[in-house]
């Protein structure tokens, strides 16, 4: 068949790739399921050598159909970069729904949620229905989900920020940083405003790369996995206690005698 990269074909192939990812398939996994080489599948998804039969096979693998893909193309969803005040207020009112939404934002399917969160199916379904009513997700045929929010969403500090204060920050405050089971890295550095801005950009890239690692790990490994929470942060160093320590002649920064052994 002639090269199909004409008309709506690029949009069809782009949506098909999204549907395959939503069904939990990487290029490698999809190629294995179809019994073809990865390079061959990549050529097909680029429009080279694609036929109607191959499109049907790929749609079947993604648990969709060509008419459904065309319908999705004709009714595109513009991802929002910020929730409305009502949406974000409702979302943060339920910590479990918040966790589910972040998983969906990261590409998790309902089946993956059910298999990886220790919650009754009815509780998961209840939150999915509420997320749909809030217009944060779409429920698609075959039990698939489409998120309506961009991964680079901007959160309000007094809503999602407050949620972070209540449920996430405490886990880092209570962390035993002397434990061999805890992995962390820290640096004390002096930066100009320009250097600080570059560091903030680096942290954002690390956050994006972290999501990419999770995507690849979720689709390509069969090893047991656990939930983790990450925190990428930088703040101005408070030297007031260090100055007080020096001025006091050696009383440590917590107000104790440095010679007193730790309990």
From TrEMBL:
InterPro entries: Cro/C1-type_HTH (IPR001387), Lambda_DNA-bd_dom_sf (IPR010982)
Every HTH cro/C1-type domain range: 12-69
Coiled-coil features, chain-numbered ranges: none
MF annotations from Gene Ontology: DNA binding
Matches recorded under Pfam families: HTH_26 (PF13443)
Record's protein name: XRE family transcriptional regulator
Native species: Sandaracinobacter neustonicus
